[in-house]
Specification:
The complex is a heterotrimer of chains A (about 130), B (about 210) and C (about 290). Chain A is an alpha/beta fold and about 130 residues long. Chain A has helices at about 20-35, 45-55, 70-80, 100-105, 120-130, and strands spanning about 15, 35-40, 60, 90-95, 110-115. Chain A has a single domain (about 15-130), classed as Rossmann fold. Helix content of chain A is about 40%, strand content about 20%. Chain A is globular, with a radius of gyration of 13 Å. Chain A is built from 5 helices and 5 strands, in the order βαβαβαβαβα. Chain B has about 210 residues and is mostly helical. The longest helix of chain B is centred in the C-terminal third of the chain and has 15 residues, at about 190-205. The termini of chain B are far apart. The chains are: A alpha/beta (about 130), B mainly alpha (about 210), C alpha/beta (about 290). Chains in contact: A-B, A-C, B-C.
Chain lengths: ~130, ~210, ~290
């Protein structure tokens, strides 16, 4: 159950992970307008630090950062025993190819989108995955 | 007191530099991983070793030995070293791609002659990785290369990478190309937003 | 978020600017700053902007990217507290006794020493701190032989370390009873470390990128290598990481400085997250291939 479904009083929190500051700004812009509290990380290392430090409701993770950092981050997260290990994840990829879909399932991704992501797609999928629509 | 001082220095066993040069090259293809590891770490001073290092890199199964071979290539740092690393940008293995990119990012000067070709590669992923390398170049040169990407590129994600790089280091020369690109992709998601941020940042830097 | 910088010029530094700075620093040095550090990044950034005569973040950032006048080093210096003192970064010492030593001593026969390395050790505060901490906090300290080595490239610092005399400022984080137990007051502001402890630390000169010097340092279980790799260029950082790998026993640990990460430097090590610290480990068992 997401924190929202449990009736959490604060805004739902999303962590956006992408190595492009412009992409992060874009997602933050779109999601803040929809009432989400957005934090960001530039790579898997920073993402891991953030999820372990604060509660989130959803991860939005680019899996094509130069070192395929996104998948390694999610794999490590899923392997661990933190509360964050079961966080739902929306994966952003550049290929609609099958390998990515397999890998996405393997790291427990709930859904994936292909870049460039439209505002509507991002808004709608985040709303569904967090159970929150303003 | 449980703390004990070691009175003698530890022996330096099997110091790789004790081998002569020919011996090191031979050890690069040893069956023993540690022999290859030590040989790779002792090489890296002579550009003539690049072919041997490149050949070893191609078949080396052990990740840390590959790292050491790449360090040797970085230390040599000339165009032949860069050429030896470039093929790995196409590797199906993400870890090898990542390692190659990191190594090449340490060699902006040596990589420069290859940039035009990389930025026109058939594979959009290679073009995106090439843009990562452009970030290591001086702003004027990088801007020139990235503008030529924007003028010719039709793949939105490659353009997005170029726009991101320009937002970080672009000079005022980039503004016209950015504006044209924004028009071309006006109906697509994300790019118009990204370009407007890049234009704002570049304008700010230029006394805006 | 508008700030007035020193010297009277106004500098408008946004949170997004701070992010971009952190991203750049991560790529160049591997330093990663957690949220609780961000407030003071702002202050250090404004200091450097003033010092470099930059009227805006953008102009400072361009200067930084080109490393004009070694600005990257100046900025990194501003972020690392260069003052050394006893029990600095205590959380790592805690990690050592709470977690690392348990792993190290598993299957370790009592006649095989535990080896701990502090490099760079500067004027000795770190290796002596390790010794004091172990004697105070490691319940099994009497069951093992523990060898502590302190190394630095600076022989004057090493000479000072071997002498073991410190001012009150270096002792500021030590509880009074530890000062009384391990130090002797020499003058009003000079304390000499207990001679037994002083004589039990082995001090050596070492350059992290020199394979010969590094080859004389082997079989360490724990290495403290803090706030030095961030100053190296890419090639030197890789060489140092490869040398450090060889200096560790399989399964041995490296502790970096608080904001440092190994991931940008080297994929030789695996990350270990403990409650008190993030450390890096040489794999115990290596596969011959991936």
């Amino acid at each position: 159950m997401t924190r929202i479904e449990q009736g959490a009083a604060s805004l739902p929190r999303v962590l956006v992970v992408d190595d492009s500051s412009l992409v992060r700004l874009y997602y933050r812009d779109v999601l803040e307008k929809s009432g989400f509290d957005v934090d960001q990380a530039m790579n898997g290392v920073e993402a891991m630090e953030r999820v372990l430090a604060q509660p989130f409701d959803l991860l939005v993770v680019d899996v094509n950062m130069p070192k395929m950092d996104g998948f390694s981050f999610l794999r490590e997260l899923r392997r661990g025993k933190s509360e964050a290990a079961a966080l739902p994840a929306l994966i952003i990829t550049t290929e609609a190819g099958r390998e990515d879909a397999e890998e996405a399932r393997a790291v427990g991704a709930n859904f994936y989108l292909v870049k460039p992501v439209s505002e509507a797609d991002l808004r709608n999928h985040v709303a569904v995955l967090t159970g929150y629509r303003r | 007191m449980p703390l004990v001082k070691k009175s003698a220095s530890q022996p330096s066993g099997g110091l790789p530099a004790d081998d002569d040069h020919a011996g090191l090259l031979q050890k690069l293809s040893s069956a023993e991983p540690d022999a290859r590891w030590n040989a790779a770490r002792a090489l890296g001073n002579d550009p003539k070793d690049v072919p041997a290092l490149a050949a070893a890199l191609a078949i080396e199964p052990m990740p840390r030995v590959r790292e050491a071979i790449m360090t040797a290539l970085i230390r040599i740092g000339d165009e032949s070293s860069a050429a030896a690393l470039l093929p790995y940008l196409r590797s199906p293995d993400a870890a090898r791609r990542g390692a190659a990119i990191e190594a090449l990012q340490s060699l902006p000067g040596a990589t420069a002659p290859f940039m035009l070709a990389l930025l026109r590669d058939n594979d959009s992923d290679v073009r995106i990785l090439a843009i990562e390398l452009v970030r290591g170049m001086p702003p004027a040169e990088a801007t020139r290369l990235l503008c030529s990407v924007l003028e010719q590129e039709r793949h939105p994600n490659v353009c997005a990478s170029a726009v991101d790089a320009l937002a970080e280091l672009g000079t005022a020369e980039a503004l016209p190309a950015l504006q044209t690109c924004a028009q071309r992709f006006a109906e697509t998601p994300f790019l118009p937003f990204a370009i407007s941020v890049a234009i704002a940042r570049i304008s700010d830097a230029n006394g805006g | 978020m508008a700030n007035s910088g020193q010297g009277g010029h106004a500098s408008h530094v946004t949170p997004e600017d701070v992010r971009r700075l952190c991203e750049f620093l991560y790529r160049r040095t591997g330093m990663l700053f957690s949220d609780d550090k961000r407030y003071y990044i702002d202050r250090r950034l404004n200091e450097r902007m003033a010092a470099s005569g930059s009227s805006s973040f953008q102009s400072y950032f361009a200067l930084l990217r080109s490393d004009f006048d070694r600005e990257i080093e100046h900025l990194v210096n501003a972020f690392t507290v260069n003052e050394t003192y006893f029990f600095r970064e205590e959380h790592q010492l805690r990690c050592m006794t709470s977690d690392l030593l348990r792993a190290v001593t598993r299957d370790r026969p009592p006649d095989e020493p535990i080896r701990i390395w502090s490099v760079p050790c500067s004027t000795g505060e770190e290796p002596y701190s390790i010794g004091i901490w172990l004697m105070e906090n490691f319940p099994e300290v009497d069951n093992y032989q523990i060898e502590i080595v302190g190394s630095d490239i600076d022989t004057r610092a090493l000479a000072s370390a071997a002498e073991g005399i410190y001012g009150a400022r270096a002792l500021m984080k030590l509880p009074r009873e530890l000062v009384a137990r391990y130090f002797e007051g020499v003058t009003a502001d000079a304390y000499r470390i207990d001679p037994g402890l002083r004589d039990s630390i082995h001090f050596t000169k070492v350059n992290l990128v020199d394979p010969r010097e590094m080859a004389r340092h082997r079989n360490f279980d724990i290495v403290f290598c803090r706030n030095v790799l961030i100053y190296f260029d890419d090639a030197s950082r890789r060489i140092a990481a490869e040398n450090l790998f060889d200096c560790l026993r399989p399964g041995g640990f490296i502790c970096l400085g608080h904001s440092e990460t190994m991931s940008r430097i080297s994929s030789l090590f695996r990350v270990c997250r403990y409650p008190d610290a993030i450390v890096y480990q040489r794999p115990e068992i290596e596969r011959d291939q991936d």
